[in-house]
């Protein structure tokens, strides 16, 4: 595969995403209407790896990032081509560069409509729809079912949630959780002395994201979300979930957040989403790129 791609009069080459100024990345995401702040890009650069497509004088025309979890799996995100160079092969070339760097890992991503056919043609298959709920959190949040267990802030070590998260996510993301926890409020649900769920709230984009939300059933997930929505009353909140029906989806609908957009979870390699009975499950995503 070529080390450069020619689009119109530009020849673009791949450069490590850490070697460009964050203002250029921010301009790229703003240019396609995404809410990422420079701080969000900085966080993502700490959490994963990435490349940018630059021309001979250092202008950035595209980006792609990947977040490896061990040797088996990685998520992909922040795939962007600047509007003036779209539909000329840069997106495909960026993805091929990412494939080369991810080896034979199973790959998963959350595709926008704009990118869906590109990913299909690159061998990804559809697994699920992600619903993006967002808006001003109202006070009080909608009624919640009876709580079974005790909710409390996680004040100690994130070790308490890493094994639970691995069962829900399918692979260990201990390092990512440690990074996320630096700027997050974390709530845990314990029942009978066991940790059965957790949720994080952290600043992102226009306000706060509630996610990851990990629970074994809809009622637990509702409590783990409501506790943060209560704190965010009057502020911008966002929840990304694959739940389309059921009590948790109903709760989000009643929360008066609006359903802003959908993206499609796709994978290449082994299947990524494997929900099992009453096992823990990711009710809320950490973010589109992080899944
Ligand atoms: C999605 C995106 C990255 C694609 O980048 P790109 O540089 O335009 O992609 P390419 O030129 O390599 O095109 C890839 C395929 O997409 C399709 N495509 C791209 N733009 C298209 C357009 N305007 N009309 C029709 N098809 C189009 C083509 O089918 C093309 O397939 P081909 O290689 O067989 O011709 C770019 O549109 C973008 O940044 N969109 C906004 C951000 C976004 O949604 N990112 C995806 C996150 S998951």
TrEMBL record:
SUPFAM superfamilies: Acyl-CoA N-acyltransferases (Nat) (SSF55729). Gene3D superfamilies: 3.40.630.30, 3.40.630.90. Keywords: Transferase. The keyword Secreted does not apply. The keyword Transferase applies. GO terms for molecular function: acyltransferase activity, transferring groups other than amino-acyl groups. Coiled coil: none annotated. Residues 12-145 form the N-acetyltransferase domain. This is Acetyltransferase (GNAT) domain-containing protein.
């Amino acid at each position: 595969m070529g080390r450069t791609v020619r689009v119109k009069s530009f020849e673009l080459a791949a450069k490590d995403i850490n070697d460009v100024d964050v203002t250029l990345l921010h301009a790229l995401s703003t240019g396609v209407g995404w809410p990422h702040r420079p701080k969000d890009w900085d966080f993502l650069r700490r959490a994963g790896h990435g490349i940018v497509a630059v021309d001979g004088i250092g202008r950035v025309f595209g980006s792609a990032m990947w977040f490896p979890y061990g040797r088996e799996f990685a998520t992909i995100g922040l795939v962007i081509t600047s509007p003036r160079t779209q539909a000329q092969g840069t997106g495909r070339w960026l993805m091929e560069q990412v494939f080369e760097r991810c080896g034979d890992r199973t790959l998963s991503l959350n595709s926008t409509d704009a990118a869906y056919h590109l990913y299909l043609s690159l061998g990804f298959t559809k697994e699920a729809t992600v619903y993006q709920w967002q808006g001003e959190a109202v006070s009080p949040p909608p009624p919640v079912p009876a709580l079974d267990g005790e909710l409390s802030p996680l004040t100690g070590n994130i070790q308490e949630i890493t094994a639970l998260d691995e069962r829900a996510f399918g692979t260990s993301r201990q390092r990512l959780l440690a990074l996320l926890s630096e700027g997050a409020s974390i709530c845990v649900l314990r029942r009978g002395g066991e940790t059965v769920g957790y949720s994080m709230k952290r600043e992102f984009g226009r306000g706060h994201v509630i996610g990851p939300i990990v629970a074994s059933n809809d009622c637990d997930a509702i409590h783990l979300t409501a506790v943060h929505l209560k704190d965010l009353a009057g502020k911008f909140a966002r929840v990304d979930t694959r739940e389309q029906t059921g009590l948790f989806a109903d709760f989000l609908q009643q929360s008066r957040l609006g359903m802003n957009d959908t993206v499609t979870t796709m994978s290449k390699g082994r299947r990524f989403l494997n929900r099992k009975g009453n096992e823990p499950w990711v009710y809320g995503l950490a973010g589109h790129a992080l899944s």
